[in-house]
Design brief:
Strand content of chain B: 15-25%
Radius of gyration of chain B: 22 Å
Oligomer: heterodimer
Largest sheet of chain B: 6 strands, antiparallel
Structural class of chain B: alpha+beta
Number of helices of chain B: 7
Number of domains of chain B: 2
Strand order of the largest sheet of chain A: 4-7-10-13-16-19-22-25-28-31-32-33
Strand content of chain A: 35-45%
Order of helices and strands of chain B: HHEEEEEEEEEEHEEHHHH
Distance between the termini of chain B: 88 Å
Structural class of chain A: mainly beta
Chain lengths: ~400, ~325
């Protein structure tokens, strides 16, 4: 009997999705959790599910997973908690270094460094994971909550992060990224996409961070040339937490009360976001402000399109030198969109919309030389070319099987 | 006729007797077969484990400048199977054939603490940690790592961490594959390399263009060489373009010459509170203003570097890096 081609394809797909020997490895909270859980993560085989029981796992050292295709699943982001309050070693709570991993339905609390880091881990899914520093906004908290880096294919979906002293959700040096349906509160940066391409940041609730959503490109890194990113349909509201990042980090320079901020990058489309009560500015577009020597780096934002967003309040308390005077000159608040004025590529906004240029005369020049001016003649520019954005569809199927 | 038979029997006995040490020697299959042997003794690397006296075919070695691990004494051994040879590779890593093993025992406070083995299997290198028992007769696989109380040579009481299997790989990964770190031509003495080649275990003595100085000689050699040797052994296993810290852009390998890659005037990217409120990885002339020095001088999780493998401060290492940064222009 011959198997129809379609059936063969389906069978192959099934075989790929769930290897025949796939098994579930249950790990309960309680005594010896550190060793039992770490052993399960080491001995798991591709396709296996490491099933975390309900309760609080008291951990002393970072955990790590280096097996392809493993799912780590808890009983819910409030029911299963990996508690790192007594952590003695390692840079993060959980480190993933293998491809095709799914992390879902558990929480990580109070890590000394980053919460969950995945590096060189292609096609990773974070679904309904919570990372929290329970003491609130503190400089001594770890830097990143959810931290995929150097990866192709990233889905961060339905997660909740608060207290990160850098970014709640940080995706760095990666491509094909979707960050959606997340709740990020009380971090320095809510969501940060850095030195990355083809990212879709959509339908997130972003509040009480210092800055809501950041899209940055920085010099002297192995992967540069960030861009081709869509920031769409997010609610970015009341991001007014004073900056608590340790000095020396790039986000320590983010003004309190920034809604969406683009630094350098090529091709960012900011659309259909609902923005309210962000005290510095709803949208801030700037060049990289520091001196740099990297000849391959472009510090200017290019092709940044801002359209069809809604803006309520905000801009009344801009945290920048001369901010109070600007507010006075402009009748009580800055307009929703503020550009530093560096370079020839002004942001692209719809007909009839005016925005503020700070009129900085060049890259790396301080606010002392600002010559602020309202720009109400939008210059047409190339729109973001429709292309591939976001994580591969197969990742969505892993989040919602 | 009877006499002859007796002689034959004797010869057989003699052969058996000669073969016996070999039977007790290295268990080649434990190195290459799949699975994780439960005990260090399963490999037969040692004729006398407690004394760390190696079995036949297992050769001790040392590296010019070592990775510092809370002051633990390290006993290193290399095994290359009979009939095979390592291949010289200039300044770089000796190319050890499948079936080879690297063995490193940590002794602290007069006790054998752990032995880490690197096994070259057909599918690649595998790193496994073994924890010594209280009787010091054997060490047991510690796949998930372990913590134990120990006292360093400096007299500090610490919680000593035996790394888990994945943490072994954190340091030993290059482009996602496990690789050995220590036995590079530049980090082995010319005399040892010559002996190893003479023993037939190495195809030839590698041409080393620039050898890392001997750590004990650090006061006699240019401070930059001593410091860069130290950074190479203690940091560069992660801080290289294919290592665990590749995304930092801070690259500290012996051969790096680019000042920004070495951290000079370079801003951190993902340091978090590891920055200590400082702006640059390395500020020429100012060690205390340099994040690199700050993190070496810290014991706090999330700040301290290296992230794994130490629970106390390396004062000699700090001194040499301090002197290097102070002398930079």
């Amino acid at each position: 009997m011959r198997m129809p081609a379609l059936l063969i394809a389906a069978a192959t797909a099934l075989a790929l999705a769930a290897p025949a020997h796939a098994k579930t490895i249950p790990v309960a909270a309680g005594d010896g959790a550190q060793v039992r859980l770490q052993e399960a993560l080491i001995l798991a085989e591709p396709g296996d599910v490491v099933e975390l029981g309900a309760g609080r796992f008291v951990l002393t050292d970072g955990l790590s997973l280096d097996v392809k295709g493993v799912t780590v699943r808890g009983q819910g982001m409030d029911a299963t908690v990996l508690d790192f309050s007594g952590q003695k070693g390692s840079g993060e709570g959980l480190l993933v270094t293998s491809d095709e991993v799914t992390l879902r339905d558990f929480a990580v609390e109070n890590t000394k460094g980053d919460g969950i880091k995945s590096k060189g881990a292609d096609n990773i899914v974070y679904y309904r994971v919570r990372v929290t520093w329970t003491g609130g906004a503190k400089t001594t908290n770890g830097a990143y909550g959810i931290y995929p880096v150097s990866s192709t294919g990233v889905l961060v979906d339905g997660c909740k992060v608060s207290g990160a002293s850098d970014a709640g959700i940080y995706v760095g040096q990666s491509k094909a990224i979707t960050v959606r349906y997340n709740f990020v509160e009380n971090n320095v940066a809510g969501i940060e996409i850095e030195n990355s391409r083809d990212a879709l940041v959509t339908d997130n609730f972003v509040t009480r961070n210092t800055g809501g959503i950041l899209v940055f490109d920085l010099p002297n890194l192995p992967v540069m040339g960030g861009g081709n990113t869509i920031i769409k349909n997010n609610t970015v509201f009341g991001n007014d937490t004073p900056n608590f990042a340790p000095k020396g980090n790039i986000v320590a320079g983010v003004p309190r009360g920034t809604g969406i901020m683009v630094m350098a990058n090529e091709g960012v489309w900011i659309t259909q976001n609902r923005m309210a009560d962000n005290p510095t500015a709803h949208v801030l577009i700037v060049a990289y402000p520091q001196p740099f020597t990297d000849k391959t780096y472009n510090p200017l934002p290019r092709s940044v399109v801002i359209e069809e967003n809604s803006y309520v309040g905000g801009g009344g308390e801009p945290q920048m030198p001369g901010g109070a005077q600007l507010v006075q000159m402009l009748g009580g608040r800055l307009p929703p969109v503020v550009w530093d004025g560096v370079g020839p590529n002004q942001p692209i906004v719809p007909e009839g919309m005016s925005f503020l240029s700070l009129g900085l005369p060049g890259q790396g020049v301080g606010m002392a030389e600002a010559r602020p001016v309202m720009i109400d003649e939008p210059r047409p520019g190339a729109m973001v070319a429709p292309g591939r954005f976001g994580a591969p569809a197969a990742l969505d199927a892993r989040a919602r099987p | 006729m009877r006499l002859l038979a007796a002689a034959l029997l004797l010869a057989g006995a003699a052969i058996a007797a000669r073969a016996e040490p070999a039977a007790q020697g290295v268990n080649a299959r434990a190195i290459v077969d799949a699975g994780y042997p439960a005990n260090l003794s399963d490999y037969g690397f040692f004729a006398d484990p407690a004394a760390q006296r190696p079995a036949g075919g297992v050769t001790p070695y040392r590296v010019q400048t070592p990775l510092w691990s809370d002051g633990a004494e390290k006993l290193r051994f290399v095994y290359v199977p009979d009939g095979k040879q390592a291949l010289a590779n200039g300044d770089g890593l000796l190319n050890l054939p499948v079936g080879s093993a690297l063995i490193k025992t940590f002794r602290l406070d007069g006790r054998l603490i752990e032995t880490r083995v690197l096994l070259h299997r057909p599918e690649g290198w595998v790193a496994l940690p073994y924890q010594w028992n209280a009787a010091q007769t054997d060490a047991r696989l510690a796949l998930a790592g372990a913590r134990l109380d120990a006292v360093t040579p400096a007299g500090e009481a610490i919680s000593y961490a035996i790394p888990n299997k994945n943490q072994c790989k954190d340091c030993h990964a290059l482009g996602g594959e496990v690789v050995p770190l220590g036995p590079k031509g530049r980090n082995l003495s010319a005399a040892w390399l010559a002996d190893f080649a003479k023993a037939g275990k190495l195809d030839r003595v590698p041409q080393v263009t620039r050898r890392v100085p001997l750590w004990e000689d650090r006061a006699k050699v240019p401070v930059a060489d001593a410091a860069r040797g130290y950074l190479d052994a203690n940091c560069a296993h992660c801080h290289n373009p294919q290592g665990a810290a590749s995304n930092s852009g801070l690259f500290l390998s012996w051969e790096v010459t680019d000042r920004t890659m070495l951290g000079i005037g370079k801003r951190p990217v993902a340091a978090g509170r590891g920055s200590g409120g400082l702006d640059f990885d390395v500020v020429p002339g100012r060690p205390e203003a340099s994040i690199l020095y700050h993190r070496m001088a810290s014991l706090e999780g999330g700040v301290s570097m290296p992230e794994l493998g130490r629970a106390s401060l390396d004062r000699d290492g700090l001194a040499i890096v301090h002197a290097w940064i102070r002398g930079l222009r």
